[in-house]
Design brief:
- By secondary structure, the protein is an all-alpha fold.
- The protein folds into two domains: about 1-80, Alpha Horseshoe (Serine Threonine Protein Phosphatase 5, Tetratricopeptide repeat), CATH 1.25.40; about 95-169, Serine Threonine Protein Phosphatase 5, Tetratricopeptide repeat (Alpha Horseshoe).
- About 70% of the residues lie in helices and about 0% in strands.
- α2 (about 30-40) packs parallel to α4, α4 runs parallel beside α6 (about 95-110) and α6 (about 95-110) runs parallel beside α8.
- The two termini are about 35 Å apart.
Length: about 170
């Protein structure tokens, strides 16, 4: 595992590389996404949002920057704004399980457990055996008192076979 100083050093080197790439091709969304990701890694969520927005202007059909903005707003504790961007990302690419997970998690952070439950259920229609989504569903159910089993005790995923068993929720 990298220590924080080395990780920060590497991220700052990435920023320099992405800046050069932007100078060479300012119409390519990729380096803007890279800049945003590096700033996100440094914990500079506002700068990350700024660069993700630039990437969106260049490629509005890429779900990644919308997801990134959602995650940056989550990092800032602005979960309502995060939800707005996660929903936009899902409209572009519903196949990305991580976006569904982050959306459900943002609802959980706001204690909007009914909304979180609906998101996790919908996501599991697409991603039937995703353990993160199953865990999120279990947490939402537990928070709503629809399950008396603590999340850590759910047996929804059999680790050996990775089979989803909704009866255990």
């Amino acid at each position: 595992m990298k220590n924080n100083f080395l990780e920060e050093f590497e991220l700052r080197k990435e920023l320099q590389k992405y800046q050069k790439a932007i100078e060479l091709d300012p119409n390519n969304a990729g380096p803007f996404n890279g800049m945003a990701g590096a700033y996100f890694g440094l914990g500079d969520f506002n700068r990350a949002i700024e660069y993700y927005q630039k990437a969106i202007k260049l490629d509005p059909n890429d779900a990644g920057p919308f997801n990134g903005i959602g995650s940056a707003y989550s990092g800032l504790g602005a979960f309502d704004k995060a939800i707005e961007y996660y929903q936009k990302a899902i409209k572009i690419d519903a196949s990305d399980a991580s976006i569904w997970f982050y959306l459900g998690s943002a609802y959980l952070a706001l204690e909007r457990h009914d909304d979180a439950l609906a998101v996790f259920k919908e996501a599991l229609k697409i991603h039937k055996e995703n353990p993160f989504l199953i865990n999120g569903l279990g947490l939402a159910r537990y928070k709503l008192k629809k399950s008396n089993k603590p999340v850590s005790r759910l047996k929804a995923v059999n680790i050996r076979t990775s089979k989803f068993n909704p009866k255990t929720l």
